[in-house]
Amino acid sequence: MRRYNLKVLGISETHWTQVGQQRPASGELLLHSGHEEENAPHTQGVALMLYKQAQNALIGWESHGPRIIKASFKTKKEGISMNIIQCYLPTNDYNEDANDRFYDRLQSIVEKCPTKDLTILMGDFNAKFGMGNTGYEYIMGRQGLGERNKNGERFAITSTCHEVLGHKKHHHKEWITVDTLGKIQERRNKKAAINTSRTRAEKAKAQAEYTEVNKQVKRSIRTDKRKYVEDLATT
């Protein structure tokens, strides 16, 4: 950190469990977040290492599981804070539901950051964006490498919706289609069926049906969001 004059260093894949902070002999402050379950595996894990100036500016920090950690800092501008969110995203071939849960949580964390603040997302997103930025000119240039993968697409959509739509959740209804709303209602019905099941067999069947409908809802929402962002780029 001293060599490159870094005040804040984000770390992914620490493989540390639990949540806490440490102070190495060199004087930096290390904030870390990992699995908290008993006998949890030493996998994933994220951390932020703060040099002296960042320590003095630290307002507070939050653990959001083994893949996300957030810290807030004072800035020279009165009333404006800087939020740094360090992430470690699952790979493309990881469980799709895990990817969805990650982005749902990330979206929720970002939406809670005041719009007047400076919010920085950084870390290992296991994403490729490619050089094409049509529809995403607001949030990326044309200097990416390779071809955009699914993680790159998800991150671009998340960033664009945050940039263009802002934080207000009622905006989301503008781009959710009637078909998706129907699937959401069906998911509610399947959820209710689980709670009213009288036998184990009925409950297992209802749970399986709910899981399948839930996947359909998430796919449909992603499709709606992608189409809405593309339409924004052409208007």
Automatic annotation (TrEMBL):
It comes from the Eukaryota. Signal peptide: none annotated. Transmembrane segments: none annotated. Coiled coil: none annotated. CDD domains: L1-EN (cd09076). This is Endo/exonuclease/phosphatase domain-containing protein. It comes from Schistosoma mattheei.
